[in-house]
Design goal:
The complex is a heterodimer of chains A (246) and B (59). With 246 residues, chain A is mainly alpha-helical. Chain A has one domain. Helices cover 75% and strands 0% of the residues of chain A. Chain A has 7 helices and no strands. The longest helix of chain A is centred in the C-terminal third of the chain and has 42 residues. The radius of gyration of chain A is 22 Å and the shape is flat. With 59 residues, chain B is an all-alpha fold. Chain B has a domain of 38 residues. In chain B, 81% of the residues lie in helices and 0% in strands. Chain B contains 2 helices and no strands. The longest helix of chain B has 35 residues. Classes of the chains: A mainly alpha (246), B mainly alpha (59). Chains A and B meet through helix 1, helix 2, helix 3, helix 4 and helix 5 of A and helix 1 and helix 2 of B.
Chain lengths: 246, 59
């Protein structure tokens, strides 16, 4: 069964990841590249200002204080960058597929197209939509709070939402279900970490378009992964059972 | 006889299921952590566009 989990995760992730990477290439990536031109322009303006005032040392948004001294590796723009983005999206889809399978197997659910799609929709809610209500999808160059605080809030919110959904959909006691709803709200009552003041130089129209596309692509990635898992799992199960019958 | 076989199969698949679910969840969590959250600069730079697109908190 472990082998089947690995096979189906890899195949489902590969298919869904490739599909979404293609969508990404024509939707969000062009906006990220456009936002980077604003970021670079802002940096150049700051440099000019700094040399004018005599305070020439600035901290780059992508680097930190030592970035200028040790240039870090990053993929070259063009084919290499697209290739890495595609690989990482596929890896994410494999991860989502494994999480879906792990959840469904732990719950003892039958794994079909229908159930896998329902689980994927819940995955999108817990790991996409709900965290995004606190930490909206951001373009490079946006102002944001300390990374570690945001990551902690994101992970906590995703886990609490997933747990809350699980309890709400499976528990029968009304008080338990009410508790689940309350738990889902707690991270939002605490509030996501935000910067003191918004400082983004990226035009609002581009940022808004990006946020909408990002949510749509997250939904697409979850649903495509769920669909692929729902199709491939019964196929792999039949394949595993076939030699036993022969 | 049929009942016996069925119960043995269920027992065997229960431990199999625990193993499979644990392996799947561990693999999924490790992958998502690496692509979405790891602080290594090289990993960040390789994953940059996907992190932004999928709204993982990024720099």
């Amino acid at each position: 069964m472990v082998n089947r989990v690995l096979t189906v995760s890899l195949l489902a992730g590969l298919l869904a990841g490739l599909l979404v990477a293609a969508l990404q290439h024509v939707t969000t990536t062009p906006l990220i590249l456009k936002a980077e031109t604003f970021e670079t322009a802002l940096r150049a303006a700051e440099l000019q200002h700094a040399s004018f005032t005599g305070d020439a040392r600035i901290v780059l948004a992508h680097g930190g204080p030592d970035a200028a001294d040790h240039a870090e590796w990053k993929p070259q723009d063009g084919l290499q960058r697209t290739a890495f983005t595609t690989i990482v999206t596929i890896a994410t889809a494999i991860g989502f597929a494994a999480l879906l399978l792990g959840g469904m197997i732990a719950a003892g659910d039958a794994i079909t197209e229908r159930t896998a799609l329902i689980w994927a929709a819940c995955g999108f809610l817990a790991f996409g939509l709900v965290p995004a209500t606190g930490l909206a999808p951001e373009l490079p160059g946006s102002a944001s709070a300390e990374l570690l605080h945001r990551q902690t809030w994101w992970i906590a919110t995703a886990l609490v939402t997933a747990g809350g959904l699980w309890v709400f959909l499976r528990a029968e006691a009304p008080w338990l279900r009410a508790l689940a709803v309350l738990a889902v709200l707690v991270p939002h009552l605490i509030g996501a970490p935000h910067p003191a003041a918004p400082e983004s130089k990226v035009p609002a129209e581009i940022a808004a378009h990006f946020a909408a596309l990002s949510l749509a692509l997250q939904a697409a990635l979850w649903l495509a992964t769920g669909f692929a898992v729902g199709v491939l799992w019964p196929w792999a199960t039949r394949r595993a059972a076939a030699p036993a019958r022969a | 006889m049929t009942t016996n076989t069925a119960s043995i199969t269920t027992q065997a698949s229960a431990s199999e299921r625990v193993k499979a679910a644990a392996a799947a969840l561990a693999l999924g969590a490790a992958l998502i952590f690496t692509v979405g959250f790891a602080h290594s600069t090289s990993v960040h730079n390789a994953a940059h566009d996907t992190r932004h697109t999928l709204a993982f908190p990024c720099h």
